[in-house]
Amino acid sequence: MTVIEGYPDYMLKSIKLVEEKREKNMSSPVKPMSMNSREDMLKKYHPDYMQGTRRKLKVGKDKGMLLYNGIVDLLESRTVIDPKDIDLSKIDYDVDLLIIGGGGAGTVAALFAYESGVPKENILIVTKLRHGDANSMMAQGGIQAADRPEDSPTLHYLDIYGGGHFTNKPELARALALDAPGIINWHEQLGVMYDRQEDGEFQELSGGGTCRNRMHSCKDYSGMEMMRNIRDQARNLEIPVLEFSPIAELILDDKGQIAGGVAFNLETFEYYVIRAKATILATGGSGRLHLASYPTTNHYGATGDGLIMAYHAGANLLDLDTIQIHPTGDAYPEPLVGILSTEKIRGLGAIPLNKNGDPFVFPLEPRDVESASFIKECKEGRGIVTPTGMPGVWLDTPMIEIIHGEGTIETKLAGEVRKFKRFGIDMAKQPILVYPTLHYQNGGVEINEKTETILPGLFAAGEVSGGVHGKNRLMGNSLLDFNVFGRRAGIYAAKYVKKAKIGKLTLNHLEKYNSMLEQANVKIDKSAPIILPEYRGEMAISRSLDIF
Amino acid sequence: MTKEDQVLVEKPKSKKAKDIEEKAGTVEVFIMGKSYKVPAGLTIMKALEYAGYRYIRGCGCRAGFCGACSTIYRKEDEQKLGFDLACQKVVEDKMYLVQLPFVPASKAEYDIEKIVPKDSTLIEFYPEIARCVSCNTCTKSCPQDIEVMKYIQRAIRGDIEKCAEISFDCIQCGLCAMRCPADIKHYHLSQLARRLRGKYLDTKSKNLSDRLKEIENRKYDTEIEKLIKMDKAEIMEKYKNRKIEAEEKGQGGA
Q1: What is the CATH T-level fold of the domain A83-322+441-506, as seen in this structure?
Q2: For a disulfide at B49, which of A46, A535, B13, B159, Cβ 3.0-4.6 Å?
């Protein structure tokens, strides 16, 4: 039986070198890269620039657009619902506002729609798993907001825009930076427990690609603490939530407006017709598609459904030719592979080192650059290869205790400590092994400042949306994103429902999409959205029968 | 399509990895009493999937944050029950497993704006905490190793601040509430304690309220507008030359 306890001997030898060089490494840090060397690093080592990871889409609104293969595969699949199976004359839920997704963006939207005057019984949150099962819950490091006197929303804007390689929609980046302090204030009113100094000011750290320390955190459970508060608020208000019933396709009306969705009860296999005057798409990301074959940090339901159903209905997409791989996914031990170790670890001062114990990159480059430099180090043979063949580099966590004092790791990184302790690794005394992991969907369904998509009646917020982060998101801007744009979606959708009038419901767009696929002559062997990933053992699947 | 085509791997496996998996051997687990052989070294969650189970309930974040996959287990010939998260705990030979995907525990409803936190606030909303018999079963069943009984005791004494602090890492899986002989809803109670602390007890930031006033007075609007209107070369130059605080002070900042 292999019960994993700590590191094997050959790794311990490499850790010896890390320890010997620690003092020197701390006193002579690697400088940030120039813009040109950043570019060069990305071109050579980031999957966004690799051959064979992406191809051009052959159907629909964005025909000819370059996207990751895994997303094109789904967009070039048959619609998961056959319109003939659905009776639209019987409405199961008739509401003002349908919110698709019970994560951060969806729940924030519900709260602000309620505050903006939509009665709670006319709001319906529909979600794939439980209310709160979302990447929002898992975000560890923190949330950016420029509130210190030495910082400003202008500098935050510059970081967002530069970090996104100047490809963000400027008005969305502006909204993100300018709304941020207001969001923190709203959280204070809800009761979010932020890490503070004794005088009440926030403890603020640096993140990759940020020019000021503006990362607000709640230990290393930042997203969980926000999500818990937001969800508790929604529960106190008794905002209706339909769990384990993902929306499989959107419904339109005869005027071309989005008019709700078809939900699928995962447990009884029934469908429900939901009619709504406005719909907010808040379905989150797509890490579980394992684009470019990366392991992922994402939750179980992150299968990109929102992209697919919105595209079926005629929405347009942005920036899905890029993925965010997070530099510090866990590489060892095996059961943790792909799970995130927060960027806060580097924010607190830990430095990435190769197998010789030498530093090779400024620890807080933007995520794409930092990841690419890890990949380079491993490709050139200076990484450590685990017993299961996974490469990785060290992240020298004991440095944190030297910089901030003994016990810092235990108090500021409680979740991380707990995770590694199970496997006999004490991260306050030993470094951890990391390698990039699929973390975030940079792009998505295009929105404007009011979170409107190009389809009347359809709003989008959070990871499913595109334009906010351009081609690369910075740390701490996703928690911020779901709050800023979830709020805006709730407010603007509430305004919209006041004058919206829904016509006759239809799913004709699905038939049209399927015939378009046939005409485009693409090989169709799947249907989408996929709703959940398939992780059953190959043996079990190969012998399964479909007779019950 | 064949079902094999649908298989998405959790992690791309090299050939070498497969060999090692074979070398590591298998263990026998009992999923709700039924025997399955699975590779050693898998988490409980991945072991169930290997055996052919496809999760709908009992699986959420797969990384120890959401509390969806709380699992109760007992090893053959052992008296004691074990409690853990299926996504974090590695299978052991002769483990009997059952998951608890839902907990029927009632939550108090309140308007956080209307509560004035006092020593008696927590016990008013959750009077059953007074029935705590200090058996410590809650603490023993916590997969996060939180000192659950300790925060209940603090709550009984009206110490909202400590109750919030000790319970902070709670993932709300509900195992504590399911085991408690006094029917206490620990994880709901501590949610209230944390909200009260965050809202009413922690000192607030002055910097934040100053910044909010500036934003309200539109202090940054023209600055940002100017950046938006800049041509690409100019803004790239500005970005490149901005001073990085972490670099100047040594990283880590405040």
Answers
A1: FAD/NAD(P)-binding domain (3.50.50)
A2: A535
